[in-house]
Write a structure and sequence with these properties.
Elements (H helix, E strand, L loop, with lengths): L1 H27 L1 H10 L9 H15 L2
Amino acid sequence: MAEIILFLVSLFILYLVIQAAVRNGINNSLVGKYLREKHGIKEGEIISPFEESLEDEDNKGSDRT
């Protein structure tokens, strides 16, 4: 039982390390710098392609009579 708990804790720590490395890698890359300069995307901002499609669907529904 202790081995399973230790395994799960180590997986969570590994997840946090990989998440931080990927986030820092993207922010320091040329693509990350380009997005910040040209599009004004900030570090903590999450962009989802689904948000725009949901907003479009809401606008289409309000146009109908």
